[in-house]
Design brief:
Layout: H1 8-39, H2 46-55, H3 61-81, H4 87-97
Length: about 100
């Protein structure tokens, strides 16, 4: 930067710290979502599970479980957020924006 280089060790240290922090935050968010879903008895439907399996089928084997867990978390979060929204209101949003 402006003629000064960043030492590779400093770059690697910053990268590890940032990645670790982001990973911890993502894991904590996932745990909160899963705990809240369990508490409120919110689960994924069979079609939702099938859609997640289908969507992650091309992920490398080592990453597939992680991708599926993250996808389940997103669907659970959506279900939790929309829990008190009527079906009519959901359809109205879907008609307007194409998804909810």
């Amino acid at each position: 930067m402006n003629g000064q280089s960043v030492p590779s060790q400093q770059f690697e240290d910053e990268l590890k710290l940032t990645a670790a922090s982001q990973t911890l935050q993502r894991l904590m968010q996932q745990m909160v979502i899963e705990q809240e879903a369990l508490k409120k008895k919110v689960t994924l439907s069979e079609p939702e599970e099938a859609q997640i399996s289908f969507a992650t089928r091309h992920e490398p084997f080592q990453l597939r479980a992680l991708a599926q867990r993250q996808a389940r978390g997103q669907v659970l979060l959506r279900s939790l957020l929309l829990q008190d929204v009527s079906e009519a209101e959901k359809r109205k949003v879907f008609a307007q924006f194409g998804h909810f």
